[in-house]
Amino acid sequence: MAKASLYQSLRNRKTEEKVSGLILIAPAFILLTIFVLVPLILSIYRSFFYYESGPNEAVFAGFQNYIRVFQDESFLRSLANVCIMTLFIVLLQVVGSFFFANILVRMKNKFGVFVRTIIYLPYLFSGIVVACIFTLLTYYNGGVINGILGKMNADPISFTGSTFWAYVAIIVPTIWVGGGYTTLIFYSGLINIPRSLYEAMAVDGASFWNTTFYLVLPSLKNYFVLTIVTLVTGSLQMFEIPMLMTNGQPLNKTMTPVLYLIHARANGNVPQSQIIAASIVIMIVIGAINAVVFCVTNRKEKKR
Amino acid sequence: MSSYGRQKKKTGGQIAITILLYVIAVIVLLNIAIPLFFGLISMFKNKNEIFTLDFHVFPQVWSTDNFSRLFYLQYTTIGVNFFASFGMTLLVAAIATLLSLFINSIAGYAFARLQFPGKKVLWIIVMATMFIPGITILLTSISVVAAMGMMNTIWVLIVPGLASAYNIFFFRQAYLGFPKDYDEAARVDGCDSIAIYFRIYLPNSATPMVIMGAGTFMGYYNSYLWPTLTIDSNHAQYTQIMTLINRLFNEASTLGYGAVLAAAFISLIPAVVVFAVIQRFIKEGISLTGVK
After folding, report:
1. B140·A25 Cβ contact <8 A
2. A119 and B28: CB-CB below 8 Å?
3. CB-count exposure of residue A258 (10 Å: 0-12, 13-18, 19+)
């Protein structure tokens, strides 16, 4: 009798868990379905159709929309631009943050705590506000930088006049926002490496560089992957800072794909279904680059 | 003696390195502070003093015109009350954060602790949504909310972003670290799975709630593109603050850039408050975000 009731309660418990589990995930799953999965399926569907005269008259287009995307030089150029900018952002931010995290680990006083706290702050700021603040610095006629250069009788810098300075005007604020956060990620990785491993390396007489290459970098592999993937995904989609800082100038050299698609939608000069096809191309590019990052880091591990 | 000398020399080198480290740290802090400093100072410059070739770091005349201008925005071509928009954005972000924390934490709890049919497949689907870029579903999401009649309502700002795979992942991660013994004890006392969430998991999730709440709140508060595309100018009462600041930025030649900066810095106040609240959680938050 006791056995049976235990069995009964266990069985009831299992049924109860099944029902409760489904109830608890239902709100999130339904919302994700309506606002992520359905739009995704709709995007894929629409990218294969023409909508010549309104959304109700769809004509199957095969890969025509995609072919048009790859014939659209402005879009391809924006994709190339954003890849170059992403490369610089990832390199500068990952190397800089890793370097600075190594410094912070060696600061074990109140000042170190203060720095670790304060560098997180810009991460909470929106791209729009950050771009407003940096535009004050980079504005051609009387911005802070050109104001100071003027006092020193130096030539003013046109941040929208040359590709180099336009890149600077986008990349610097972008790293200003996110650099502190990436530093904290590396910092938390560094403090998680057991002290005993450092001591073992020291006993073996390993130099600072040996410790870095054979202990620190391999231990932080996952932190590097996470940081690079997040940065690549975010930077390839960036548009708020580019929109306000340069708006594509000079000559669309700093046009990003997202900004281009938003402009195209607003101007109505590119068909909606082609914009959607282009946005799927962006998804594929981001996925491909992240896949390469994963593969490269995994191969390194096998070698080791 | 010689060993003493060598050690002293090494200490000297270490001191030099330590000084160098502090110099670098101070430079980093200055890099964060300088743009904010110039922004804060320039808010008090009047319209003629900002963006002139005769540059001065500090305002020649300290003026609060830029702030008073913000009180009259609804009577200009902008047509939006700045402080009403600020309040509406805070309201939207607050409601959305509360709903989002609830929806995502119960899902995270279910994925962490309960066995239910289709769990693996559902988990894979949920995680897959994390890898879909916002731009890919932007236009079709607008079609979906339009079909649901949500355009130009407060709901279009709140509902579509509530469920988040990232937050579900995070809550699952946090709940996996909870001791399972409590569940068993509660079951013996006759609690079912849902009661266990409300009696044990929810009361003990202050840290993940604060961290995820801060991220969700700032995400909603800072969002620009979605509110801009889903609220039109006939529904100015729902204008979100970043949309408004972008419009002020585009109208800077008539408003004066000081007014743009004043609006921008006022809009940073919630970020600073959130920062003050979460700063002691930051370290824990980063170690929880799933890097292993």
Report:
1. no
2. yes
3. buried
In sequence order, the β-bridge partners of residue A60 are A49
Angle at B242 between CA B240 and CA B247, to 5 degrees: 100
Q: Give the residue from B37, B132, B136 with the most A CB atoms within 10 Å of its CB, the best one to mutate.
A: B136
**B134: nearest CA partner in chain A:** A237
What confidence tens digit (pLDDT) does each residue in B87-144 have?
Answer: 999 999 999 999 999 999 999 999 999 999 999 999 999 999 998 999 999 999 999 9
Confidence (pTM): 0.91
pLDDT digits (tens, 9 = 90+) for A58-68: 788 889 999 99
Given an 8 Å threshold on Cβ–Cβ distance, is A21 in contact with B107? no
For residue A201, give the 3-state DSSP assignment: helix
Contact yes or no for B110 and A122 at CB 8 A: no
Domains of chain B: 2-66 (no CATH), 69-288 (1.10.3720.10)
The minimal CB distance from A272 to the residues B103, B116, B139 is found for: B139
